[in-house]
Design a protein that fits this description.
Helices cover 27% and strands 18% of the residues. With 202 residues, the chain is α/β, with parallel strands linked by helices. The strands form 2 sheets. A 4-stranded mixed beta sheet has the order 5-6-1-7, covered by helices on one side. It has a 3-stranded mixed beta sheet with strand order 2-3-4. The chain is globular. The two termini are 22 Å apart.
Length: 202
């Protein structure tokens, strides 16, 4: 049976592991590179996914280097001094941004400053902040709870993998029998609703 993903939405209880999703589609041909960034940081041109994929490996490294540096610094701060608001982050090479999800976007300036304290060389202008439903710490705790339930045989389906939704809105659970998921008693504090697609939301 082909496995499908069950997205468990835990609201304030939701959890997650640090995930940096890099948008680099496969299958495109390598193309010409772009100049390295030097001196005062300047925003790179917005590219489509196809244009990013068509860059040479060296050009991709040039484009992704500053984004990865930002992601590393924010991730370190998010698992340390900013753990009270940090949810997740995602790298998007096309628009040349790192989206950082915080439970309180009013703390954006503080998190940005804490990331610069980790690595003063990062270009903080590459960061875009969005609202998160839960912190990394809460998502991690919820993920461990789901794993414990699965290991104890207390779920009606086999769970292959548990991880965070990219936007820190809940957990995504890879199961072998998605039809059994709606009948599952969601952990306390969870809300469950049917999705119009094969992906179901709790």
């Amino acid at each position: 049976m082909r496995r499908k993903v069950v997205a468990a939405r835990f609201g304030a209880l939701a959890a997650g592991l640090l995930v940096a999703a890099v948008v680099l589609p496969d299958g495109a041909q390598a193309g010409t590179g772009t100049p390295a960034r030097t001196g005062t940081p300047a925003r790179a041109a917005i590219l489509t996914d196809a244009q990013v994929a068509a860059l040479s490996p060296d050009a991709q490294a040039v484009r992704l280097g500053p984004l990865r540096a930002v992601a590393n610094a924010v991730g370190a701060a998010g698992q340390g001094v900013a753990a009270d608001v940090y949810g997740n982050l995602a790298i998007d090479a096309g628009p040349d941004v790192v989206t950082v999800y915080l439970t309180d976007t009013g703390q954006a300036a503080r998190v940005s400053a804490q990331a610069r304290a980790v690595d003063p060389t990062i270009d903080a202008s590459l960061i875009r902040f969005q609202k998160a439903a839960a912190t990394h710490a809460a998502l991690d705790a919820a993920a461990q709870r789901v794993v414990a339930l699965a290991d104890a045989g207390k779920l009606p389906m086999h769970v292959d993998m548990v991880g965070p939704a990219a936007d820190a809105s809940g957990l995504q659970i890879d199961v072998d029998n998605p039809a059994a998921a709606p009948a599952t008693a969601a952990p306390r504090g969870c809300r469950r609703s049917a999705s119009p697609t094969s992906t179901r939301s709790w």
